[in-house]
Amino acid sequence: MTKFVNPYTFVPLPDAIKKEPLQMHDGSGAKDKDLYTGRFVVQWELKSSLLLPENAEAEGWLELIGKNVGRIRVPGSSVKGAMRSLHEAIFFGCMSVVDQNYIPVYREASVKGQRTDDDEWVIGVVEDIDENGKPLRIRPSKGGTAWVNAEVLPNIGRPGNIDENKLPQTGDIIQFPESITKNGRRKVDKISSFRPRHSDSFDGYMRNDHVLIITDGGTRQKLRTWHWASQEIDKDSPLLAISKDAWKHFEAKVDGTEDRRKEKLKLRKNGGFPAAEKVQVQGLGKVLGKRLSQNGVFAAGDALWVKIGMVDGEKKVTELSYSAIWRRVAVFPEGDERAGEVMHLGDLLGDLGPCDPNSDEGVCLSCSLFGAVGPEKEEGEKGLGYAGHVRFGSLELDSSLQEDGVDISPKKKIMPLSSPKPSNGQFYMTNPRRLRGEPTLQMVDDGETTSHWDRRRIKHVDRKLAGRKFYWNHKPDRKHNNGRLHYEKFEGASDELTTERRFVFAGDKGDKVIFKGEVIFDQITGAQLASLWCLLNPSSLFESFNVKGPDVPVVRLGGGKPLGFGSVAPRIVSHQVYNSVERYTGKHAEFGDSNGENLSSYNKRWKSLTSALERRVIADGDSKKLVNNIKMLNRLMDLDGLGDAKELVTYPPGASWSQYGTKKFHETYRFFVENRGFAGGGKNGTYWGEWMPLPVLKPTDRPQHMPDDQTLDW
To answer: What is the DSSP string of 99-124?
Structure first.
């Protein structure tokens, strides 16, 4: 067993979000008589190395002034985005940046390589495409599937000794004299003719022409015969269009593929446009052929699996798939009023989704302070937006560091970091307590699973989104027992999946790296003022709500958070806060530096501001909910929130810690395959997987040296 701590956890979402009507920028619409205008100067001390963007110099983050020495500038937009997310988490804001149209995608269930559904699928040939590579018309095949022995196709060869243009590929045409039925499958071990795929003229199809689909190794046994699917082309069938929903769902399925991820990285590095790529398939020590890249872009003559049905009285393609067993989208389960409909992230959010400034119900505190974007009224048409009341200036090195610059790393290849996978319900959804170990027989009979959104109830408990995602603090440059640094690219990682990045060293106690930046606000309420102060001076957050917080609370900036980069301690070092009405009358600042005190030191006045803050964000009047929420963030804003367990932070490993940095250790997918929370395996067997949800985060007054409550054993 290997013990580890997942890099991220979740702060639970509130039951409801309190919204109030918008306050205009001239002060009208505000409930409070007193509004405030002013500025904070904030100091940001780097506590772990700050990862810079891949193109840091071009994007204005870095000015090199020597070998591995430079001046750093963090754009205000980057700071504002990070601080807004934290503000929403602390003060019960909406989920402003989530993609409500996100559709979760899962692997099709299968037993012994066979689909477990009863749907009829056929192979279809792409007849023509639009300018973006989207198929316009599909020619369906007919009859059953014949599985062709890969080694009987011509021009296969050893790696390094092949002609790319002659390799068999998806869409090629074959004929065969006979097939043998074995274990319910037609198999072909000899072909009589082979022709390259059509690409422009489709008039030459003949009787008994079969179109071929080549796929990668997947779960095939390495030393067993490989077979690929073929079906007879129906040259007399009318061509079929693809339904709008089918293409939308197909794009959702494609978006999470490895091919799409690689292509995005390639295009980001080299520019250009998506293309209908073909990818080598190797097996049995040979190059067996070329499959379609699963990037959602097609060329005429490509072949894929399609399901056909009636849409508005017309026969159309209603589903598409690259292979016989591929991916599916989540749908509402039987018994739900929307049973069978595709599920979106917005369906799980309910009223917690982004605020609409056009709505009469108003907006949350975060949107009232930072601004809100109106939703689309119609496709492509944005609703009315609402400008925020706060502006973040860029962070510059402290004056003592500006001239000489700070130490930065040379370009280094860091660990590949993929996009989030919210469809993983094991981690991203709430799970009943003590839901670990093997599922019971009753759960198997019920087909329950923790990994799929479709399963909205387990053990008769409604499941919701786990909450807001936060990354644990740990050291990106710590060394493991084998001498490898934590952030380093692992052995065998594809260069296409890695980037070369620089980072700013955090320094030590005698050589601090400190940034400064200005935050300007205008016409904000007392509640907004208190929230902004606590956000940028987080020690006051814990003190004001009587929570024993970390000695030095930190927030996160920049990229590489799963690897521990970007822990920064903010502190307001200068402030002037004016009553807005008196701002231009020559009056002194109502709260200013001249008295040498922090805003939170104005005991009576500060208490009134924090009380106003509580009233503004608590929907049901229960102030304990805000306190408990702050206690949740206690450990997440602490550099030592995990105690000794911070040495175990990694994505689910595939081997022991002694193998850190090897490809085997970083085969994270193995964890989710073997612990996918799936009970039941379809018609012909049962799959028993472990149920291993993410440990729950609990409120605490003890941020340090916590029991080992966040580790997983696998």
So the answer is: -TT---EEEPPEETTEESS---EEEE
pLDDT tens for residues 603-648? 788 899 999 999 999 988 888 999 999 999 999 999 999 999 999 9
Report the predicted TM-score, pTM, of the whole model to 2 decimal places.
0.85
- Which positions ≥6 away from 520 have C-beta within 8 Å? 38, 39, 390, 391, 393
Q: Look up residue 29 and give its amino acid.
A: G
- β-bridge mates for residue 173, sequence order: 195, 211
Strands (E), 108-224: 110-111, 114-115, 121-129, 135-149, 173-175, 180-182, 185-188, 193-195, 210-213
- Chain-centroid distance, C-alpha 511: 35
Q: Give the C-alpha separation, 278 to 267, whole Å.
A: 16
Place of tokens 């610059």: 405
Which residue matches tokens 């790319």? 164
> Within the chain, how many helices (H) and strands (E) appear?
13, 40
Indicate the SS3 state at residue 607: helix
**pLDDT tens digits, residue range 564-609?**
999 999 999 999 998 877 766 666 677 776 555 677 776 788 899 9
Nearest alpha-carbon partner for 455 in 434, 467, 470, 439: 439
DSSP string, 636-672: HT-TTTTGGGGGGB-SPPSS-GGGTTSTTTT-THHHH
| Ramachandran category for residue 566: left, alpha or beta (phi over 0 → left; psi -120 to 50 → alpha) | left
